[in-house]
Specification:
SH3 type barrels, three-stranded antiparallel beta sheet, 10 strands, about 20% strand, PhnaA_N_proteobac
Length: about 190
């Protein structure tokens, strides 16, 4: 960290004001000379989108947005925009004023997309299901479009997870491939 940045920040995060392990964060685009901010190391992953965004961890932004440092203003504006689904962030955005040049800078780089959370299939008891597991039905189920009735206690072996729906799996009952809701299953040990 250069001396100018250290003095300006007072060895504190320029966003939250905490004395923590600091890092120099470059607010893009990189063509500007006044684009460095001293911030907590713990915030970088959320800023860059490599960690899920935790709205409660950013409650300090309505204070940080009033900084006199344009790079801090830009970073605050970008984070508030990513959090605008939160009422406090939307309120802060409504009253935040940036001069035209700073606003243009803030809009120059798109915010990273939030990492998608992995779809996890769980049985009725909260046990994580995997492809190839065996499960037991916890309820007698009538199979739609068929005269088949899958009885309580039936073991379904070698299940396949439905990739885009965490509440469904596929499995064979009496030789017929059916879709079963996970809330009617118990993972067999």
């Amino acid at each position: 960290m250069n001396e100018t940045l250290r003095v300006r920040s007072g060895n504190k995060c320029e966003l939250c004001g905490k004395e923590a392990e600091l890092a120099v964060y470059t607010v893009g685009p990189d063509s500007r000379t006044d684009n460095e901010v001293a911030i907590c190391q713990s915030l970088i992953g959320q800023i860059e989108g490599t960690e899920p965004l935790n709205p409660e961890a950013w409650r300090f932004l309505p204070d940080a947005m009033w900084s006199e440092v344009p790079a801090v203003q830009v970073l605050a504006w970008r984070m508030l925009n990513r959090l605008k689904g939160e009422s406090w962030a939307a309120d802060a955005l409504d009253i935040l004023y940036l001069d035209d040049e700073t606003l243009e800078w803030a809009k120059a780089v798109d915010a990273p997309e939030e990492p998608t959370e992995a779809i996890v299939h769980k049985d009725a008891f909260g046990n994580t299901l995997q492809n190839g597991d065996s499960v037991v039905l916890t309820k007698t189920l009538d199979v739609k479009g068929s005269s088949l009735s899958a009885k309580l206690g039936t073991v379904v072996r070698n299940i396949r997870l439905v990739e885009d729906n965490p509440q469904q799996i596929e499995g064979r009952v009496e030789g017929q491939l059916i879709v079963i809701l996970t809330k009617y299953l118990k993972k067999q040990n």
